Amino acid sequence: MPWWQELIALLATAFILALLVKTFFLQAFYIPSASMEPTLMTNDKILVEKVSYWNGDIHRGDIVVFDDPGGWLSDADEAHADNFLQRGLEIVGLYPTGGHLVKRVIGLGGDTVSCAGPNARLKVNGVALDEGYLPDNVRPCAAAAGMGDGKFRVHVPEDRLWVMGDNRANSADSTAHLGTPGGGFVPADDVVGKVWAIVWPASRAGFVSRPDTFDNPALDGA
Questions:
Q1: Residue 207 lies in domain
Q2: Is residue 52 part of a domain?
Q3: How many domains does one find in the chain?
Q4: What distance in Å separates the CA atoms of residue 145 and residue 173, rounded to the nearest whole number?
Q5: Eight-state DSSP code of residue 191
Q6: pTM of the model
């Protein structure tokens, strides 16, 4: 085989392998806003792993990347790649993808999630969460500007999720879409995967863990 044919074969193989990794195992994304600070900072580059959700086993407390359920993203949020090369690399998972959302899972199907007001604590099935991952100056039930008074009570339908940003005062999450046709709930099937690690900048590189507060058996009614 001539060298140029070998090169084409190698490139094609590398492309297919990268596409398989992106589809089934790992995918790179970037953080476009401050809605998940301080856990994830604006412009962080992250890796999302998909193996954990092969069986749909999503847990409360997971930080997930998901497709727009409908009307959550503006046109400016939809694209990240700026040129043909970046868009090509984005297809195979070698360039961080935009056009998705990243939030923390608070409630699963069957859960009741509630806030009694901006100064209250967030509750799941009547159990108050100890949310040490929130910014120091943000209250657990704080609502983003123009998005209500922070008071709500919802029952999460089956196969749906209730998601919230860690930076509650700057996050257009489920609470901001209570009045929309979808009620602020995210279909579990829209989840791409779980945030596994921060890979850039190097000073923040490391694995992303799930808070212990979500391990409380009382959340399941036990």
A1: 27-83+99-220
A2: yes
A3: 1
A4: 12
A5: E
A6: 0.81
Is 35 marked active-site? yes
One digit per residue, pLDDT tens: the chain, 222 residues?
787 777 777 777 766 766 666 666 778 888 888 899 999 999 899 889 988 887 778 999 999 999 888 878 765 555 555 555 656 655 555 555 556 889 999 999 999 999 988 788 999 999 999 999 999 888 888 776 555 677 889 999 999 999 999 998 888 889 888 888 888 999 998 998 999 999 889 999 999 999 999 998 988 875
Whole-angstrom distance, CA of residue 114 vs CA of residue 172: 17
Burial (0-12, 13-18, 19+ Cβ within 10 Å), 16: exposed
Q: Which of 22, 50, 103, 123 is catalytic?
A: 103
Asked if residue 18 is part of any domain, the answer here is no
Q: Is 162 contained in some domain?
A: yes
* 22 belongs to the catalytic site: no
Concatenating the DSSP letter of every residue in 91-108 gives HTTSS-B-S-EEEEEEE-
CATH code (residue 151) = 2.10.109.10
- Asked if residue 127 is part of any domain, the answer here is yes
Q: Which of 22, 33, 35, 50 is catalytic?
A: 35
